[in-house]
Amino acid sequence: ASKIRQGLARTRQNLSKQFSGLFGNRKIDEELYEELETILLTADTGVTATNWLLESLRKKVKRDALNNAEQLKGALQETLVSLLTPLARPLDVDTKKPFVIMITGVNGVGKTTTIGKLAYYYRSQGKSVLLAAGDTFRAAAREQLLAWGERNGVTVIAQENDTQKKGDPAAVIFDAVNAAKARNIDIVLADTAGRLTTQLHLMEEIKKIKRVITKAMPDAPHEILLVLDANTGQNAISQVKAFDEALGVTGLILTKLDGTAKGGIIAAIAAQYPQNPPALRFIGVGEGLDDLRPFNAEEFVEALFD
Ligand code: GDP
Description:
alpha/beta
């Protein structure tokens, strides 16, 4: 929990600076709601989530007959927790063996780094892990993954380092799933190249990768994780939508929460899918191996406020 506190230091400092004028000894009036609205919008919370939060807060204020702003902080925390709790559904990797996880997202969001962190996370739970270097576009991604594999004592399946040959990511991941079956491995983490949702041929390619994984193991991939950068702001919502339409995203990872003074994008995602929000499996709060944490709504909101 203190790791999360540390990681969210910037968001917290930003918020507490803004909230200091808000939650003091003053009346709860329209002016206060307007100030709160501005704070939420500047933290990337987005219009939908901001309206939902303000509406819920007004109801709570009325119901509990709150009349001083000092009482509002607790009420806002509770409201946030109830918005974010539906996102907090941890990933259960014990249902299949190997449990095949496909990692997707746009360029630079932290996919390869996150795979290193996931490998570390599952290794420290005593599970065996195999990495598939499916980002065959970026030579550095392959090197990076091999280095993560070495640090974690984990096998990496990659194509030969032949720069003349254009890599086939689907083939690499197909081989990796088969290797994992043969070696009785618990978890396969498959990296894929970053792609923009507007690059239609690359969106077709990622669908093909998914189909080929299913050929190696009928019900795989068991999890399709979309990695999002917390600094992306509202654009993260369109990334979720586009990758979900192409692949059927089953989980999200939000990286770089430590590097942002914002963080409201989590609330924006929750409000975007009021019925059935995507599961936020993990949050990234730093560049270190253990800077990836399962998402817990209460822990997150607490780290934002105290
Ligand atoms: P990819 O292109 O999606 O595979 O992105 P990379 O894994 O190469 O990461 C891009 C950069 O983001 C690297 O410099 C990482 O160290 C950095 N990064 C990834 N996750 C986090 C995080 O949670 N916090 C911080 N501060 N940096 C991160």
